[in-house]
Specification:
Largest sheet: 2 strands, antiparallel
Oligomer: single chain
Radius of gyration: 24 Å
Helix content: 40-55%
Number of helices: 8
Structural class: mainly alpha
Order of helices and strands: EEHHHHHHHH
Number of strands: 2
Strand content: 5-15%
């Protein structure tokens, strides 16, 4: 079988990707597989688990089907560059590729919000903001369950915390 990309060499790599409920099969020669960036082949023919997992979780076939290539206005990095090396180019990349990075972060870390340690200098106000956010979520649950007395108490606590936060800032 000939390579799907170059149609010259014998295909030795079969790649199957499922994205957006669509199955994409590609039969590639070693050279085209190297160029696609899905799998990295070395001269000593050692296979890396890292390369295998990178190939499984990358979306390069889906990107190849999309004609518009979005690049960071600051550093010029594309999402395909990020998927190949796993590193973001600059801080502007986070806002440029935010819609693509958030599902990736959720899949890897289980959440796309930071829940780790809080710096001591700004920690108190940040901790209050996080507490208010949790309380508002709890308030919505009370309202859904029509537990209005509990909701009113929680609303008053939120207002007190917001006043405390405004006084500190």
């Amino acid at each position: 079988m000939l390579c799907d990309d170059c149609k010259k060499r014998q295909a030795c790599v079969h790649i199957t990707k499922i994205a957006n409920n669509q199955k994409i099969d590609k039969h590639l020669c070693e050279y085209c597989a190297k160029e696609s960036g899905d799998m990295i082949f070395s001269t000593d023919h050692k296979f890396s688990v890292h390369d295998f997992l990178k190939g499984m979780f990358s979306n390069s076939f889906v990107e190849a089907a999309q004609p518009k290539v979005e690049a960071c206005a600051n550093c010029g990095m594309t999402y395909r560059d990020f998927s190949r090396n796993g590193k973001i180019g600059c801080s502007t990349c986070y806002s440029t590729f935010g819609s693509k990075l958030e599902p990736l972060l959720r899949r890897i870390h289980g959440s796309s919000t930071h829940t780790g340690k809080i710096p001591k200098r700004s920690g108190e106000s940040l901790e209050i903001r996080q507490r208010i956010k949790r309380m508002r979520h709890e308030l919505e649950k009370y309202v859904e369950k029509e537990e209005f007395e509990s909701a009113a108490k929680l609303r008053d606590e939120i207002r007190l915390l917001e006043r405390e936060l405004n006084a500190k800032e």
